[in-house]
Amino acid sequence: MLSGWGRTSPSSARLRTPSKSADVEHLVREAGERGLIARGLGRSYGDAAQNGGGDVVDMTSCDRIVDIDLQAGTVTVEAGVSLDWLMRALVPLGFWPAVSPGTRYVTVGGAIGSDVHGKGHHRDGTFGSHVLSMDVYAPGPGHLTLTPDGTPEEFWATTGGMGLTGIVERATLEMLPVETASVRVDSQRTADLDSTMAVMSERDAHYRYSVAWIDCLARGASLGRSIVEFGEHATLGDLPARERSPDRALRFGPSRQVAAPPWVPSGLLNRWSVAAFNEMWYRKAPARSSGHVVAASSFFHPLDAVDGWNRIYGKRGFLQYQFVLPYAQGDVLRAVIEKLVNARAASFLAVLKRFGPANPAPLSFPREGWTLALDLPVSFAGLDGQLDELDEMIASAGGRVYLAKDSRLRPDLLEAMYPRLGEWRQIRERLDPQGVMRSDLMRRLPALAGHATKRPTARTPGFPLQSEDT
Questions:
Q1: pLDDT tens track for 201-246
Q2: What is the 3-state secondary structure (H, E, C) of the chain?
């Protein structure tokens, strides 16, 4: 039984584990009628790395660092290498991944398939934008080496393609040189959404990283109040003199400090407990600070310090709802937040970021605009209906939701959110003409496979629609 990080919609599959990348071809050719999908560390929140009744290929055993070129600042790794392992190996050598999402526990193959982003998209773009080449086994043509210049259609269809074009076996990545394993942070507390958006719009061009932690239960004049953080990789000069030796400045060894309880009482997370947490979090932050130096792991991956933090939402799990809206649609962003506040949707994690221009990948999520991510317990009454309304608002405004985090999007909205879907399907059909690569995500959103969709009439909150193939 497998599920995503949100612990909703589990399905049963035959788990296959290649001992080396060369085994991937055999597993693909041996797949049954239900096909197969690759899986990394299971941090996709929804059902993208599940394949009920079929095969799931666990790539985490293919985790070798194949080559490091310190002069060029590149590294070649197998797809099962995690960003955690990559950082532990390369930060002491003075390099950081060019793009890091909110957790280190993501494989390189998964980061490519989801085309993950971080706090620096406005400056650095997505993970796929720093992949120089990748070796992929596609069911149709077989082994391929894809590059953005030599094979742009196949490269960008695989980047952000949710694992549905083939299995990434290895990749060569561009790395970012750093002097330390720390980040220099400037922060500002804002009183409302207007000031939050204004501060980010004015200041993030001067920083590599920016993010706002929004209190999504604050109402009235305090709607959208936030703690906004801006970051840069710290230089040696930013550190105390005793920390400036290379062995100390580049030391990277974060550990999980606490473990989430194995069982959490139902209803522990409610609007009152989350409101109390948000109030404490907002008030403890200074009105403004600058030059605060913190460990990179605490800036980029604060939740990684809590082992199994997804369990705090209880046995029914949670949804992460992330969407992007064009900058010109700031009024829609406000309307979405107002709807969530009025519904008392208890999200203690609400993160606002600014995206830069989109890359050429047809299914890549980021596009220029505002993106908001929220964690919402499945137990919240009327959640699916609320999110359906938000989906329609977002689609009508030219926005989209993130497929790597989705577990409940209404199928008829997919093509409106991803207008290049037809282009992607044509490339996928060349790479996988027999439709071997399949997932629960594809069955739930059949437009990914080219099937017509119609508006559903009802569904169970937090669980996907079932197609005839399920």
A1: 999 999 999 999 998 777 788 888 899 999 999 999 999 999 999 8
A2: CECCCCCCCCECCEEECCCCCCHHHHHHHHCCCCCEEEECCCCCCCCCCCCCCCEEEEHHHCCCEEEEECCCCEEEEECCCEHHHHHHHHHHHCEEECCCCCCCCCEHHHHHHHCCCCCCHHHHCCHHHHEEEEEEEECCCEEEEECCCCCHHHHHHHCCCCCCCCEEEEEEEEEEECCCCEEEEEEEEECCHHHHHHHHHHHHHHCCEEEEEECCCCCHHHCCCEEEEEEEECCHHHCCHHHCCHHHHCCCCCCCCEECCCCCCCCCCCHHHHHHHHHHHHHHCCCEEEEEEEEHHHHHCHHHHEECHHHHHCCCCEEEEEEEECHHHHHHHHHHHHHHHHCCCCCCCEEEEEECCCCCCCCCCCCCEEEEEEEEECCCCCHHHHHHHHHHHHHHCCCEECCCCCCCCCHHHHHHHCCCHHHHHHHHHHHCCCCCECCHHHHHCHHHHCCCCCCCCCCCCCCCCCCCCC
For 382, the domain range is 182-409
SS3 readout for 146-186: ECCCCCHHHHHHHCCCCCCCCEEEEEEEEEEECCCCEEEEE
256 confidence band (pLDDT: 50, 70, 90): low
Tell me, yes or no, whether 151 lies in a domain.
Answer: no
Q: Tell me the pLDDT tens digit for each residue of 433-451.
A: 999 999 999 999 999 998 6
Give domain status of residue 402, yes or no: yes
Residue 367 falls inside a structural domain: yes
Number of structural domains in the chain:
1
Does residue 57 belong to any structural domain of this protein? no
CATH of the domain at 396: 3.30.70.2520
